[in-house]
Amino acid sequence: MPEYRDEPTEFAAPTREEVRARSWRNVAIALGLVGFMVLVAISIILRQPV
């Protein structure tokens, strides 16, 4: 059974606005992940028996 995957021959260069939006999106994802990690760490610390 042959595969019908063709390698792309042309790539569109991202515009400056697209690169800026991608950068801000990456920062937002990173901050969300760090916030979630802090929330989980705090909840684990508070659940520890004294």
Kindly describe this structure.
This protein is 62% helix and 0% strand. The protein has one helix and no strands. It has one helix at 16-46. The termini are far apart.
Features:
about 50 residues, transmembrane helix, about 60% helix, mainly alpha, about 0% strand, elongated, transmembrane, single chain, membrane
Question: Compute the gyration radius: what is it?
Answer: 21 Å
Discrete helix count: 1
Mean pLDDT over all positions: 91
Structural class: mainly alpha
What's the SSE pattern?
Answer: H
Distance from N terminus to C terminus (CA atoms, Å) equals: 63 Å
**Residue share in β-strands:** under 5%
Tell me how many strands there are.
0
Low-pLDDT stretches are none
The profile of the biggest β sheet is:
none
Helical content stands at 55-70%
Shape: elongated
Layout of helices and strands:
Blueprint: H1 16-46
What's this entry about, in short?
With 50 residues, the protein is mostly helical. It has one helix at 16-46.
